[in-house]
Design brief:
The chain is α/β, with parallel strands linked by helices and about 475 residues long. The protein folds into two domains: about 260 residues, 3-Layer(aba) Sandwich (Rossmann fold); about 180 residues, Glycogen Phosphorylase B (Rossmann fold, 3-Layer(aba) Sandwich). Helix content is about 35%, strand content about 20%. It is built from 17 helices and 17 strands. Helix 1 crosses helix 17 and helix 10 packs across helix 15. The chain is globular, with a radius of gyration of 23 Å. The model has no long low-confidence stretch (mean pLDDT about 95). Alpha-D-glucopyranose binds next to helix 1.
Amino acid sequence: MNILHISAECYPLAKVGGLADVVGALPKYLQALNTNSSVIMPYYNTAFTKKNSFKEVYKNTLQLGNTSFEYSVLLLPKNVLGFDLFCVNIPNLLYQDYVYSNNDTERFLAFQIATLDWIITLDKKPDLIHTHDHHTGLIPFMISECYKYEVLKNTPTVLTIHNAQYQGWFSHDKVGLIPPFNFNNVGLLDWNGVINPLASAIKCAWKVTTVSPSYMEELKQKANGLENLLSHEKNKCLGILNGIDSKVWNTETDNYIIKKYSIKTSKSGRQANKKWLCKEFNLDINKPLFAFIGRLVGEKGADLFPEIFLNALKNKDLSILLLGSGHKETEEKLINLKSNDNFNAYIGYDEKLSHIIYAGADFLLMPSRVEPCGLNQMYALRYGTMPIVNKIGGLKDTIIDINDNGYGICHEGVTVDNVHKAIIRATNFYKNQTKYTENSKEMMSIDNSWHNSATEYLNLYKSLKQ
Ligand code: ADP
Ligand code: GLC
């Protein structure tokens, strides 16, 4: 079976969040299950594209409404990442040093059209097309409705929803950017009077998955306007929990971290990483270190961080370190909080630092209001850092509270008070170092790798095979 993933992000070429990690890992694990799996994404100007040489495999001109763009399809062969990585290069439009911007309707439509224009020229076409999130959400519609892609009409399509908050809405004024189709079916593009690529993909894809089973259930109640659509389409929807790439996220081989360690040597290894963090960020190594890594947005509870941290820091016996960026107002408040001795923050994106934090922090905070899956808590488990999570979405599906014979700390609902109580439970737990270390080793032995979830995807693909 030949699976083609179409995505805006893929690690290590371009990563904004967990979407990149998933698209960079799932194909590798499918390959291991003897399923040929490749990825096509936009060609951006990133450190990775500068460093690696790609081979041009196709060249043409695409039509976006009245504008034409020259483009090429580039290939990074399997031996580099473990799967074929194809990229669509549209100079000036896609080839930028950012992934997302304010003309994404045009950018991602051009990407999707270029991709389908190329696929129809292939001798060996994919057996199944797997699209991810709204950026590639018009693919299922174009395959089933656009005249020029008629040859792909019987190719099954799968949509994975990584985050239903963002839907890629644009006005019907721009419908002419989509290649000609039977206008009687224009309703398949629409949701509430605008073109909604995510809604369109939910309607047109053969199967729809979310990145955790709990998130699928939650979406039927609250999906930024798509609740009724998801309830209506429930028979083709299912939740498959993300895994992690345990080859990339491996404390024994991770070149980013200060000291590598195994379960056996985790106490000293983790201590060495904590020592580096505390020195670098001027924090006291003898205090439990709480960390946050991620986007500073409402979904992650970030607007409450300044208050949550201020409250927690009244207890002088703990430290907090934050790595992230997002809403400017929150960033500013967090920068001001740095005047507190026990708090520090790196406002920005830093892959290496994130790995050291997973390896050296004692607790990872995830007071998310919405978390379709969440990968951070699984990286924390694998590196021996205890997660503190709000019990929703994928967090609910992956973290069991220590009081329920589990290994993490869960709270229900995101309020300053709830998170504060969870932090108090954590500091009390930390006082018994023997128990803390035992728990840390137990977390490291949990297998959250992609193997099981890749098998679930494979079963889904097989169920759609003609
Ligand atoms: P989301 O995709 O919603 O942002 P996930 O938990 O699925 O959340 O994945 C986030 C990914 O991005 C993880 O790999 C995390 O380590 C990484 N990440 C997020 N923010 C940063 C940052 N500022 N620096 C480095 N890595 C980050
Ligand atoms: C999204 C979600 C996150 C999930 C990631 C990968 O960005 O917000 O919860 O882990 O996609 O599926």
